[in-house]
């Protein structure tokens, strides 16, 4: 069995930028591993949190892991004229929403932007990956399933949910996908966008007349 110290992480995601939107589900603690892994692999990670999420994992934790400040409100930007929440969405390669609660999935499907996270998602200029997590009865609810299907049709990528033991004590579908599965989806998108950038950079750098 390999020890963690024996594993040398490559910087295969260097140059990539990810916005991780953390919602108020108990599985928010698992997102700490995802953020840490992305940073260790060279990606730049900015974390945005809903108010409910801050009651489950402290912003300080994500600040330590990402080495960046955590975004929590549209009203705390140092420069109100900068439209910080819009500027961030324009500079990232993808947005990861994890855990994506039934509430947030419903907001996005209905086009509701009433807080920082929902506003950033709806103003996305990049692919959006949703990792749903909720009680199994909530996930089975017809309205939630219709909202999730609607988002898939609109081009959002859903990873999970998985089936297993849930925080409420039930067993069934609704568990947040394993961090490795989430990372796999994020990695595929980041590498694809990196290849696209590199394919177009030579043309942009050629001197006029060549």
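^ Assign residues to that structure.
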């Amino acid at each position: 069995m390999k020890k963690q110290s024996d594993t040398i992480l490559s910087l295969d995601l260097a140059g990539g930028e990810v916005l991780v939107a953390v919602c108020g589900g108990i599985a928010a603690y698992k997102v700490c591993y995802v953020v840490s892994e992305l940073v260790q692999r060279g990606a730049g990670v900015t974390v945005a949190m809903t108010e409910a999420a801050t009651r489950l994992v402290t912003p300080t934790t994500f600040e330590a892991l990402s080495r960046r400040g955590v975004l929590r409100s549209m009203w705390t930007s140092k420069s109100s004229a900068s439209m910080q929440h819009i500027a961030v969405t324009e500079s990232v390669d993808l947005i990861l929403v994890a855990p994506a609660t039934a509430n947030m999935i419903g907001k996005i499907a209905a086009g509701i932007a009433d807080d920082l996270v929902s506003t950033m998602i709806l103003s996305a200029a990049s692919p959006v990956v949703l990792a749903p997590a909720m009680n199994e009865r909530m996930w089975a609810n017809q309205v939630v399933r219709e909202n999730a299907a609607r988002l898939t049709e609109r081009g959002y990528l859903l990873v999970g949910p998985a089936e297993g033991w849930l925080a409420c004590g039930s067993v069934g579908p609704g568990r947040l996908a394993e961090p490795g599965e989430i990372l796999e989806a994020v990695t595929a998108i980041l590498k694809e966008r990196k290849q696209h950038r590199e394919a177009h950079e030579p043309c942009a750098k050629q001197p006029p007349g060549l």
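The chain has one domain: 12-205.
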